[in-house]
Amino acid sequence: MTFWKSFFYYKKQDKNYYYKNSSNINNKNILLIKNLNNTGNIVDIYLSISNNINLYDLEKLCDSVGWVRRPLKKIKIALNNSFLIACIFSYNNSQKKLIGFARATSDNSFNATIWDVVIHPEFQGKGLGKALIKQIIKQLRYYDINTITLFADPQVIKFYNHLGFIVDPDGVKGMFWYPL
User: Which SUPFAM superfamilies does the UniProt record give (predicted)?
Assistant: First the structure.
């Protein structure tokens, strides 16, 4: 894990917390959609595997889909311990807005789990979630990780089935321990 930690660092800027993955591997913006008409605004949509993430913007994105708020300090720790982070941004007149996010953890060899997949409601139904998951899978496969898992709420299982995910064919059910 020490090797991967060398790619990550935090900085505080303008009283906002940023997370930055400074790896040069696959450090690029991928244009997903040019000139998308989103409720009268023309925006370009980019996916980035390595980018600055304003934690307050991430919190706003998660709020937009009704997720329970988590402490920013813990979010920073989760990002620091993630193997891969992917973001989707909209650009309108040089204004950048975080509209999608997902991350993966891994044992760096065999297994990875995708976490916290979120697309802003204004941009859902445009194929962005599919593009986000496909890019994460592509990146994980680049590192020769063959077993990719995720946890899905019942209402999104069909979405993930269309992307090749299946309910465990051996009938294994995840088990959880929660403090009382």
Answer: Acyl-CoA N-acyltransferases (Nat) (SSF55729)
What does DSSP say about strands 111-119 and 147-150: parallel, antiparallel, or unpaired?
parallel
How many Å apart are CA 98 and CA 45, to the nearest integer? 10
- Cα distance between residue 78 and residue 115, in whole Å: 10
In this prediction the pTM is 0.81
Tokens 């992917």 found at: 86
Distance CA 25, CA 48 (A): 12
**Ordered per-residue pLDDT tens for the chain, 180 residues:** 333 333 333 333 333 444 444 343 455 788 999 998 888 889 999 999 965 689 999 999 999 999 999 999 999 999 999 999 999 999 988 889 999 999 999 999 999 999 999 999 999 999 999 999 999 999 999 999 999 999 888 899 999 999 999 988 777 777 788 888
φ/ψ of residue 148, rounded to 5: -120, 120
Which structure tokens are listed for 72? 């920013």
- CATH number of this structure's domain 15-150, picked from the four choices 3.40.30.10, 3.10.129.10, 3.40.190.170, 3.40.630.30: 3.40.630.30
